[in-house]
Amino acid sequence: LNMSSLQVTEEVREHLKSPIFDNWQWEEAEMLVLLQVMYTDLDFLTAFHIELEVLQNFLFEVYCHYNSIPFHNFQHCFCVTQMMYGLIWLTDLRSKLGRIDLLIMLTSALCHDLDHPGYNNVYQINAQTDLALRYNDISPLENHHCAVAFGILSKPECNILKNLTSEQYKHIRGGMIKCILATDMARHNEILNKFKVLQPVFNFTNKDHKEVLMKIMVKVSDISNEARPMAVAEPWLDCLLQEFFNQSDTEKLKGLPVTPFMDRDKVSKPSSQTNFIRFVLLPLFTELTKLFPCLEQHILEPVQRALEYYSDMERARKEEEEEEGT
Ligand SMILES: COc1ccc(NC(=O)[C@H](C)Nc2nc3c(cnn3-c3ccccc3C)c(=O)[nH]2)cc1
Ligand SMILES: [Zn+2]
Question: Whose CA is nearest to atom 6 of ligand 1?
């Protein structure tokens, strides 16, 4: 895999900074080069003395540790990292946070679902898997993703952090652990409520304020598919439901409890998505937009359009059912 082969045009570099970037147009090998562009364009290589070859080894090793499953695969990793990259430029975070915090956010996005098995925490705990056993039922997946990330970084040829001071390394390790563990949706309300308290009085020099914002930015990037054009977002929902249905099929086979919004006999795509957008996405994106008003047009409005799209679909389906019922 010759990473420097693909010459990235200026136009692609600019497009890479926008939330309308379409992942479905790109091969995985090209995505690896685009990830390399993100690290170089944010000046991480010069700032942290990262050798290009070590970055390429790191990115390739990350690529190898994502599994070929319907949703939580390397394409999802790329989307989340690309959204994080876009948000950093759109909000001009480079002028508000230190470069080391940007490195934490981008690398957390890149690593946040490493080696995801396609079965969520509820399954891990109910099925008493090795991961649930190892992590005592406490965010088993997110603990695993983070441990795999630092397993990769422990290899000298992949260690992009090797030329940092021990102070810097401690700060990055602590930040990545907090940000990756924050992607457990069971903690969604805990983290959003903390941000809601801080947002009106947000202080970019306050350590605790910055920590909550970094967690929110990784969370927003992680579940942001619906902020992309519908042609890009809708296939992601099909992939997600495929993975959820695989899990609920397995749970039924094993006699384990089945999560309602994962049950292929119960889930309707439009109604589950309207609920998700209304009760999870919009409150989260609205709060972040209060801190960065420029995000209104880039992520809030697309999500509001997505809500209308799925609400119309839901209404049409209901009318069809009523006609069939008569
Ligand atoms: C509070 O914890 C929750 C809340 C909602 C959901 N998921 C849903 O409501 C449904 C299945 N929809 C949904 N879920 C989504 C999306 C993006 N990521 N994502 C997702 C994927 C895996 C685990 C959790 C979530 C939220 C999306 O666009 N839609 C899953 C966990
Ligand atoms: Zn994810």
Answer: 276
